[in-house]
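Quick one, T. Sequence first:
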Amino acid sequence: ICDSIHSWHGSGKLHESAQLVMSLLGLPKQWPRRRQEITSGYAWALIQTVREELARPQLGTSQELRRLADPRGYASPLTTSAISAVGVSYLARCVFIARCAHVPSSMRNRMIGFVVGPIYFLGLATASGWYRYAEALEAVMFPAEDSVLAAKLRQVGRPLAPPETLQVLEKEELRLACSKPSVTEAL
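Structure tokens:
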């Protein structure tokens, strides 16, 4: 469904019917952009840069590092994904009991739950975790006054950014360039 919604995407705006479908499914407005960030490698590159900076702080201020390490940016999606994965694994077991005549206590039926649950968790945790953490990351990348870490994150993400995200990056870089001298020369 998300791929068909994404295929309706044209010239920077979603078609009205796609927005209706997304709202009926409960998908946030930013979901197509966040999905592209995951699949393009943009998300992974930024997370790797943040991980390295948190392990050995060199560029970030203490406030930036606190914000990036704050569990409120990622704990909630991971928790709900784990709880949901347990429920989906039991649901899969029930479906196989009803449709394939599995014996409820059989190893075969338990294996269905062990296979379905982790796959569901990985998909949901990745999507919802990035969606939530990207908000905290963008708050650090686009501060009121530019910083060395923010410039580094934008520099790392720029080559991998999908078109919609690239527009956001360019708009914010222009805002930062107009407000104060850039810190990109320090990199």
